[in-house]
Records
---
Amino acid sequence: MYGSLWRVLPGPVWLRILMVVVAVAIILFALSTWVFPLVDGLLTPGQPVTVDP
Amino acid sequence: MAGVTDIFSLLPGEPEPERRARREPEAPEGEPTGQPASGPSSDRRPRDNRGRSRSVVRSAIGVAGELLITAGVLVFLFLGWQLWIQGIALNNTQTNEASGLSQQWNASPVGPVAPASTDPAASTGAPPADGSGGVAPIVMAAPAETKQFAVLYVPRFGADYKRTIAEGVDAKAVLNAGGAGHYEQSAMPGAMGNFAIAAHRDGWGSPFIKINELKIGDPIYVETQDGWYTYRYRDTEYVTPEGVDVLSAVPQVPDAAPTDRLITLTSCNPLYIASERIIAYGVLDSFTPRSAGAPAEIAGLTGKGA
């Protein structure tokens, strides 16, 4: 999968590496900005810290 | 020839000649792999029909493996985000919200004659039983659910530590915002009895991560519209998650009449596991009305944004 993606990328190796770095940065930004907060809200209340009967 | 760790050697009908050809290109029986020697070998697709179905299986396994690895990386990224990145954002929000509350109270102070209710002891003019003979604490009325009504300062948790305290301990409505929540059945700040709050210890800003580092006598300041309540840390207790008696007016003695003005901090224990609860108690030391200004130790912190 990732091998195919790598071969699809055009240009010399340094340009491909640059593109991959930029893509990973965009993905990480999108995850932390939108996806992870959404998942955090969907998960069960999380770690309980209260005393309950 | 195939190593025991080679997963592909376990597949039925593995084309031995092809494998040999891959490792020893000069072998006479080797089938053409149809690809130059460069590139990851797992993605080679032999052109002959005999190897095609097997190569599809291998590609599928390869893709599935990469997807599983990706999923694992995502889970760790989420955990890291939850522990650190989200905490930074929540703590900034908390600091700004706490400052906003202080500024709002300073701008429109509630006069000493305006408290919605006063403690019985305060109304009779008696100083706090354990106080230093200072001003009798004003006790505010219980606020609406989820409303932020107080600011918590604990210098032991950090020189610029301040968090909001909202009504209720519901995780999603209150605690996951990174502040503390007030047990609705417990007393209000400064009141005779037990002012009990809860907060996360790890994740969601980790407001109580250093709850186990409190030293006897450490100040715990609670600011409300009426002023500042200075509690002093007294002791710590570990209980089971069902140990609700820590919230009693006299902790662990349900139905007893209170004689002290306590603060109770509850959080999870052990760190990252939360099979128990850690409980930290403090006793009211003094009350500073808003007209007198903030206690010296947190004077520079009150109302200051992130």
---
Amino acid sequence: MTGLRLILDSVGHAYGGMTVLNALSLTAEPGEVLVLVGPSGCGKSTLLGIIGGMLAPTAGTVVIEGEVAEDCLNPLTYVFQDFSLLPWRSVAGNIDLVLAARLSRPQRAERIAEVLAVTGLTEFANAWPRQLSGGMRQRVGIARALAVRPACLLLDEPLSALDAQTRDLLLDEFASIIARASTTTIYVTHNLAEAVRLGQQIVVLSRRPGRVAAIIRIQRPLAERSARDPDLRAIEQDLWTMIRADAAAAERERLNAPA
Amino acid sequence: MPRLDGPVRFRAGGFAPRDRAWAGAATLLGLLALWQAGASAGWIKSLFLPPPVAIIRALWHLTLSGELWRHLSASLARLAIGWITGTLFGVGMGLAVGLWSAVRSSGMAVVAALFPIPKIALVPLFIIWFGIGEGSKIATLAFGVFFPTVIATAGGVDNVPRGLIRMGQSFGLSTAAIVRSIVLPGALPAILSGFRVTTSIAIVLLVAAEMIGAERGIGAFVLSAGNLYDTDNLLAGIVVLSGLGLTIAWMIGWVEKACFTWR
């Protein structure tokens, strides 16, 4: 396995007076896919922001350990829920953006061609983002992330903006891409089917303030998992049982919150 | 209970105006024709409003004599230098206001205090500061262009989705690369919209500045024609100014089209 070890020690975060994460400790091993699930507002995305250095925790520390490959340009790399593509750059241009300062033109062209081939976008290198479907835009997001050869992939609900059919199709591709990249992966989702399809360590967060409520480990390799796997369906059901009460309470809380 | 027999009535029409390029030209030509007809019929006195034919004739003579180019070239030089100076400083200040807290509040306070001042009122002050020559005229234009450019640029920067900037940061892009590749292109539509406003302001200020102490320039020409009750030439000068405004607007539209093929 390659990738970084991520160690979160008593991480906490508060927005003003509102604590969203409380004393959260966990470890993602090199090459492991760690999935964060939990009810709405439990701080999953906040935690991902802290892990990637985009938010400063108000308590605790996040430590990375391990060596990164020579060609790694951005060890901790995000894939965003809203794709975050520059509409004024073509597909290739969006990928080139994150390589431009660090590689020569021929090296960039080579990497762009490679990641476009991995994500099935070779024919769309010169297309504008507006010309692509949601699923294809997220493929560009993945291609851009892979282009920097990350040591740790941070995916923030990458499929939630897509329709159900596209989500299912892309989920299979994600599983295969993540398995091949074999980087440490932190995957935030509220979709439990995605969690059991991809997660090797599934961390269930409690409702706000988020704490680790449970950790479930699935040993089966990603390549051997399928959407209809009955064992995975059973784990998904267990997860839902764990989350359901918290999810309902979080929803009630949200409805009662002042506008 | 009332019955509802028959086909469903279509209710979603209208509220979708379409551009008809020919309609604009036809309207202008129609107005010109009416104007000419009114003058030919004797309903409009040529001293008050010379007919289009007389204006065209005046324009023709001005062009042949080289008088038009003498004035227009002076005006174009002032317009270009003044507008470019104001725009460069304005875009720079707008970016600083949009990007850095240290500049934001103080910069916007100065802009808010000085923007509403009619810049024409400052021309005498600029003459005292920069002299009666080119300096005061260019300063008037640059000053007038500067403030709306700051506002347009800062607004454009504010409207760049923060998520895109965070994306750049998450990939380790330098501040310069983020400004160059994300902030500036993201703010460009607002900046170019600002250009439409600032070029019009610049033409207004150009004429005003040239009416005070200039020998050459369309503003000086219009003023001198007015003083002589030479309304043919006066309106010829105004037509030139209108043509200048239209040409600049067309050029900005062309730049917008070229820059925003991605839309």
